[in-house]
Structure formats: structure tokens, C-alpha cells
Design brief:
The complex is a heterodimer of chains A (274) and B (263). Chain A is an all-alpha fold. Helix content of chain A is 82%, strand content 0%. Chain A folds into 2 domains: 48 residues; 212 residues, MetI-like (MetI-like fold, Orthogonal Bundle). Chain A has 10 helices and no strands. In chain A, helix 2 packs across helix 10, helix 3 packs across helix 4 and helix 5 crosses helix 6. The two termini of chain A are 45 Å apart. Chain B is globular, with a radius of gyration of 23 Å. The longest helix of chain B is centred in the last third of the chain and has 38 residues. With 263 residues, chain B is mostly helical. Helices cover 81% and strands 0% of the residues of chain B. The chains are: A mainly alpha (274), B mainly alpha (263).
Chain lengths: 274, 263
């Protein structure tokens, strides 16, 4: 009798405990931000620094809402994201294909590996003036530079991944009568995929870092990098900080939503990585 | 024997490829399809490199850039390693700093340039701070994971053999985390090297390799731009191979923490 009355109680308590734990995690993560933002607000209010240079959080939030409501911020975000994905898609297409070719063919490897190893270690932004000279100010230079720079980690990782496919898998597939196409689709691509995804991830992170810089240099009409750099002229520190905030949110979103999901759907499901 | 000839063959192929790439570039530059100011011939690039090295200006700029990188990196090391160790050892510190780190890390260091420019004006401070920001996170995160990766068995064994807290730290934790810390140092340097060029573009002072490139663009001196690119690539390569290679040999390889590279 006592058991039957106790059981619903336990079941009812469980979700409640879960909820509590979740709140505790949220509070844990929020606490440091509250401290830092609180300090910021206190410093801003004391007026040690001119409010134009050190705006209070309220001002920043107002600017953020205002810019969003007027559609300016969404336009900047949209252009930045479009540029990011155009450049990244170019890099991914070229990088994966070249990486696979380099991994499969000794001759192509001999041709491209030296070039890639010389060009890759030079900081991406150092190419920016050259691209600006060759392709002019504006979108074309920005997208091409993003593509160029983010292609390197993709090429390297794809190449490593294809080389890391175990010889024995290839031979056993061949022994079981797989033709070239099936060998490629069923063995080489899945085998190299963890590396390729790693490369894409690095490439996207690289693209993201370069994009913000090149938007400041290439004088594109819209884009978050340009927004925060342009705000300097008018001492709009609040616009800058709102922009940096959006950049941070986009960065976290890229990492969490795009790649973790992609990884879950492919390599984890195939059991390639734990 | 086979491995050696394989290697020699690779070197030969690499040389041939680079020679062909240079020849194609030279041929295109000579046809004059593109204005020579935008696509200078290789002898012109070589001349620009040689004369700027000889009159000492390139060396001065390289020294300026290196100074900024090393100071920024130095501050990142001084902050990143102790904080990483503390985060790895003490849960409350980890709980406090980890959310902040994961929120700040995805913000590219260059996004801070406009703000820092307003706060600190043009010049060295901005470049050094940007380098610091770029270099801090790899240093911090690698140290943190290094400390956490120290085998608890080693700690307990050392404790059982009577090591006090100080000996435990210097004899077990630091060597145990060293491979991670050195990886962090490497990544930090690469990040710093990338960031410093961007910071020098935007926070233009009047020296530094990034500034040379950007200034050369204004005067359409593509030869000087390419020459500085060569210098930038060369310094990056030298640091990666010589400095970090020898740090690794002197520490973790000697302690047997990582295997020697094959070959």
C-alpha cells in the first residue's frame, strides 16, 4: 500500500529535480556574465571615462533595438552571412575536390602540395591588399579572399583524411568487387569524412575571422565589420559594441548549430567517431 | 634507402613545381596582360626585397612587427598559463571563467580593433592588445586541458611517495601538461602572427610589416607588397620550425612525453 502511494510521488519529483538542475546550470553560466556586465555598468555610470567612449549597457541595448527596428542591423548581418557562406562554399567545393585528388593521385599531390605549403602559412589578411589591387575594392575581393584563405585548412584536412583511409578497407572492398565509383562513395568518402568535417570546421572558423577584417578594409557598403569600423568615424561606441555582440552571437551560433549538428548527422551516426 | 630516394624525389618534384609556377607567373607578367604595377616581374620583386633588406628598412619593419607579437604573446602567456592551471585545478574558477571564455572566443580579434582604436588611439597599444586577445584563448584552453589530462594516478603515486604540494606541481603537473602547453604556444603564435598583420593594417602606425604592405597598396607598389609577403612567410616559417621545434626538443621530447617525429 505504501509502495503504490510513494511511486507517483517519485515520478512527480523527477521532472521537478531535472528542472531544478537545469536552472542551476543556467544560473551557473549566467553568473560570470552578470558580474562582468555589472562591473561594466558601474564603471560606465561613475563617469571615469567619457560616456561617448564607454557607454552604459542601457545605451548599448537601446542602440541595438533601434538599429534592429530600423532594419539596419539585419541588413548588415544578412550581407555578412551571405558573404561568409558564398566564400566558404567556394572554398569547400574547391578544397574538398582538390584535397581528394591530392590524396588519391601522387602526381597531383606532387604539383599542389608544395604550392599549398608555401601559401598556407602566410597570414590570410596579408593577402588582402594584393586582392584589393587585383580585384578592386568591394564584394568580389572580400568573397575571394575569404574563399582563398579558408580553402587551406579544408585542402589539408581532406588530403590527410583520404590518405588516412586504411589500405585494408580499400583492398577488401575491391576484393568484394566494388568498382571505382562505389569504392569512392562507400569507402573513401565515409572514411575521410571525420577529417573533411574537421577541415570544414576549421575553414569556417578561419573564414569568419578573415571576413570581419576584410570587411573593414574592402569598403563594402554593408556588413558587420564595416559597420563597427565605420562607427569609429562618428565615435559611435554603442554601435560598435552592439556590433561586437552580434558578431559573438553569430560566431557561437555557427559553431553550435551548423557543425555540431552536421557531425551528429553524419560521422556519429556512422560510428566513425565516438 | 627507398625512403631516402622517395624523399629526394619529393624534394625534386617540389622544386620543379615551384620553378614552373614561378615561370608561369613570370610569363604572364611579361606579356603585359595586366598592368606591370599590379603584377611586377620576379626580378623586380627580388630587387624590392633586396634593396629594402640592404637599406635596413625591411629589417626595421620586421623588428617592429616581431616586437608587437612578442609583447602581446608574452602577456598572453603570463595571463593564460596561470589562469589555465587554476581553471584546471579549481572547479569554482573553472565555473566562473569557462562561460566567459566560450562567449569571447568566437569573436574575431579584429572585431575589437575599432573599439580599441577609440580607447587607445593609433599605435602600439592597439596592436599589442589585439595580439594578446588572439593569443590568449589557445594558450588558456590548451593549458586547461593539459592540467586536466594529467593522469590522476601519477598525482596519487607522487603523493604516496611523499611529494608535497610544491613538488607535485613542478614535478608532475607541469611536465604532464607540457605537451598541451607547447601546442597552445604554437597555436597562440600562429594566431598572434595573423592578428598582428591585421592590426597593423587598421591601426596604422608607421612601421611594421602589415603597415608596409598596406602603405605599398596606396602607391601601387606591388613589388614591395610581394617582397613583404615573402618576409612575413619566412618569419612565420622560421618561428614554427626553429623556435618551437627546439622548445619541443628541449622539453617534452627529452622528458619522453611525446614520441620523436618519424624520420
Amino acid at each position: 500500500m505504501a509502495d503504490t502511494t510513494a511511486a507517483p510521488g517519485v515520478i512527480a519529483a523527477k521532472p521537478h529535480a531535472n528542472e531544478n538542475a537545469r536552472w542551476r546550470i543556467i544560473a551557473h553560466n549566467a553568473f560570470p556574465f552578470i558580474v562582468v556586465l555589472g562591473l561594466w555598468e558601474i564603471v560606465a555610470r561613475t563617469g571615469v571615462f567619457p560616456p561617448k567612449l564607454f557607454p552604459s549597457l542601457v545605451t548599448i541595448a537601446e542602440t541595438f533595438v533601434n538599429l534592429t527596428a530600423r532594419g539596419i542591423l539585419p541588413h548588415h548581418v544578412l550581407d555578412t552571412v551571405l558573404r561568409l557562406f558564398t566564400g566558404f562554399a567556394l572554398a569547400a567545393a574547391v578544397g574538398v575536390v582538390l584535397g581528394i585528388l591530392m590524396g588519391r593521385s601522387r602526381r597531383i599531390e606532387d604539383i599542389f602540395l608544395p604550392l599549398v605549403s608555401i601559401l598556407a602559412p602566410i597570414p590570410g589578411l596579408a593577402y588582402a591588399p594584393l586582392f584589393l589591387l587585383w580585384f578592386g575594392l568591394g564584394n568580389k575581393s572580400a568573397v575571394l579572399l575569404v574563399a582563398f584563405v579558408s580553402a587551406f585548412p579544408i585542402i589539408f584536412n581532406t588530403w590527410t583524411g583520404v590518405k588516412a583511409v586504411k589500405e585494408i578497407w580499400v583492398r577488401s572492398a575491391q576484393a568484394m568487387g566494388a568498382d571505382d565509383r562505389r569504392l569512392f562513395v562507400k569507402v573513401i568518402v565515409p572514411g575521410a569524412l571525420p577529417y573533411i568535417l574537421g577541415g570544414l570546421r576549421l575553414g569556417l572558423a578561419q573564414a569568419w575571422r578573415i571576413l570581419v577584417g576584410i570587411e573593414m578594409l574592402a569598403a563594402v557598403p554593408w556588413g558587420l565589420g564595416w559597420m563597427i569600423f565605420g562607427a569609429r568615424e562618428f565615435l559611435n561606441t554603442d554601435v560598435m559594441l552592439a556590433g561586437v555582440f552580434v558578431i559573438g552571437v553569430l560566431g557561437v551560433t555557427l559553431e553550435k548549430l551548423v557543425f555540431q549538428k552536421l557531425e551528429e548527422f553524419t560521422v556519429m551516426r556512422w560510428g566513425m567517431v565516438r | 634507402m627507398i625512403a631516402l630516394s622517395d624523399r629526394a624525389r619529393s624534394t625534386l618534384r617540389a622544386t620543379v613545381t615551384i620553378a614552373i609556377a614561378c615561370a608561369i607567373y613570370e610569363a604572364v607578367a611579361r606579356t603585359g596582360t595586366f598592368p606591370p604595377a599590379l603584377m611586377p616581374t620576379l626580378p623586380k620583386v627580388w630587387n624590392a626585397l633586396w634593396s629594402s633588406l640592404m637599406d635596413g628598412s625591411m629589417i626595421g619593419h620586421a623588428a617592429g612587427t616581431l616586437y608587437r607579437v612578442l609583447v602581446g604573446l608574452g602577456i598572453a602567456i603570463v595571463v593564460g598559463i596561470p589562469l589555465g592551471i587554476l581553471m584546471g585545478r579549481f572547479k569554482p574558477i573553472e565555473n566562473f571563467f569557462m562561460p566567459l571564455v566560450s562567449a569571447l572566443m568566437p569573436i574575431p580579434s579584429l572585431a575589437w580593433v575599432p573599439l580599441f582604436l577609440l580607447w587607445f588611439g593609433l599605435g602600439n597599444t592597439v596592436a599589442i592588445l589585439i595580439v594578446f586577445y588572439a593569443a590568449l584563448f589557445p594558450m588558456l584552453l590548451n593549458t586547461w586541458s593539459g592540467v586536466r589530462a594529467v593522469n590522476p594516478l601519477w598525482l596519487r603515486a607522487a603523493g604516496a611517495m611523499g611529494a608535497d604540494e610544491k613538488a607535485l606541481f613542478w614535478k608532475v603537473m607541469v611536465p604532464g601538461a607540457a605537451p598541451f602547453i607547447i601546442t597552445g604556444l604554437r597555436q597562440s603564435f600562429l594566431r598572434a602572427w595573423i592578428a598582428v598583420i591585421g592590426a597593423e593594417f587598421l591601426a596604422a602606425s608607421d612601421w611594421g610589416l602589415g603597415w608596409v604592405i598596406f602603405d605599398a597598396k596606396e602607391f601601387l607598389n606591388a613589388d614591395l607588397m610581394l617582397a613583404s609577403l615573402i618576409v612575413i612567410g619566412g618569419i612565420g616559417f622560421a618561428f614554427e620550425r626553429l623556435v618551437f621545434g627546439s622548445i619541443e626538443r628541449a622539453t617534452v621530447q627529452r622528458w619522453g612525453m611525446v614520441r620523436m617525429a618519424k624520420g
